[in-house]
Amino acid sequence: MIRRFRNLSPLRSLPKSVEARYYNRVRLALKRLGNPLKVELDRELGRTDMLLTEGEWLCVDRTRDDLPLLAWGDFQTKGRVTLHTSVRCTLHIYHFHAGLLIGLTLPILDRILQERLAYQT
């Protein structure tokens, strides 16, 4: 699913940390709901989807043929002591307005995944 975006160069790449609750919820969802996993973020972010795998989380604009907006990847979990520890990663920015989504995307994704996981059990 994400493989077709490998040749695109991001406008900018930044070192970041993903809060443990977001990282853990995505990992749990991938195990229980499927890997890879597509999550529609329509209610809050228009026609935006998240394409999730263990190695990368890609935020795309569905109205523009899944144009990449943001991607979290290169998760550094080696040596992670507890499940409450943030995970270092790299944030790739593909669209010049994507910075507006950085603070919104993961909390919304987390809430949707939490709802799906609760419904699944």
What does the secondary structure layout of this molecule look like, with pairings?
Layout: E1 12-18, H1 20-33, E2 37-40, H2 42-45, E3 48-52, E4 56-61, E5 67-76, E6 87-93, H3 102-120
Antiparallel strand pairs: 1-6, 2-3, 3-4, 4-5, 5-6
Walk me through what this model shows.
With about 120 residues, the protein is α+β, with helices and mostly antiparallel strands. The chain has one domain (about 10-120). Helix content is about 30%, strand content about 30%. It is built from three helices and six strands; from the N terminus they run βαβαββββα. The chain has helices spanning about 20-35, 40-45, 100-120, and strands at about 10-20, 35-40, 50, 55-60, 65-75, 85-95. It has a six-stranded antiparallel beta sheet with strand order 1-6-5-4-3-2. Strand 4 and strand 5 (about 65-75) form a beta hairpin. Helix 1 packs across helix 3. The longest helix is centred in the C-terminal third of the chain and has 19 residues, at about 100-120. The protein is globular and about 35 Å long. The two termini are about 25 Å apart. The mean pLDDT is about 90.
